[in-house]
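re the bet — no i am not wrong, look at it urself. input seq straight from the record:
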Amino acid sequence: MIVDCAHYRDGVRQHEGAMTVEEAASRVTEAAGDFVWIGLHEPTDEEMSRVAERFGLHELAVEDAEHAHQRPKIEDYDESYFIVLKTAHYHDESETVDFGEIDVFVGRGYIVSVRHGPGAELRGARHRLEDRPDLLKLGPAAVVWAIFDQVVDGYLPVTEGIDDDIEEVETAVFDEDSEPTERIYFLKREVIEFHRAVWPLLTPLESVVAGRIPGIDDQLRRYFRDVADHANRIDEIVNSQRELLTSVLEANLALVSVKQNEVVKQISSWAAIIAVPTFIASIYGMNFEHMPELHQRLGYPLAVAGMFLSVALLYRFFKRVGWL
């Protein structure tokens, strides 16, 4: 679906309402500060083909944008670029993280953004940029910055939500009435997937800041540097969360092993206690005729008393060593 399609010149939107793809393509020029921005949300194959044909998008990049599920990257296609970003959104109710994707085609006089999944809304970035004509007049690179900035800023609430979840599982680990192993495992998977969304961004941002990607104004590069700083800080937080979850999982497994050892001790103790009278009873159960105590008046009571005495002594022993 085409969400918005606009033409900008010198930092000002040139019309009200959205244009058609054909009209937008006809307004593409190579003049500085003059460009069109088309926003798509989970477009159909027909819509994507129309846009690709009108703007001459590279077929490999179009294929990646149609299927999504790409890792964050910046790829150079002749005189255009293809950018992939991963979005993340934390749900307080379910305490889970949803991941989406934004694919961006950037060329002379145009930018096409394709959104997939939840948490990838770009309306805020568009409005924010339209309120900054000094940046918007710098061309499509300013839109790329606005998208990067919104995506990276959206990572911070996710790290805060995950921090709260980690505190909860840390408490649950030492709670005898809870079994947090499964939650720790799935939380660790979320953090790993979050790391895969953040870490690949660092190299492309470093390339932009270092000036290895042409066509970006020095003023705008300072804004990219701020985004790069935020992304590095998020990456450090995510790495810390991974290490902390590893420690929590190890502590949980250690406590589970201790609980299992306690159970094994109790079972072994009762097995030893039962084994002695069972052994004595089995001897007498063979009914040998020449066992002297069988002919004594107190033989049977003494055998039974010996069983009870052995059980009492073993129970006292295992109780003293802490197995029962």
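see?? The domain at 1-135 is CATH 3.30.460.20 (Beta Polymerase; domain 2). told u. also The mean pLDDT is 84. so pay up
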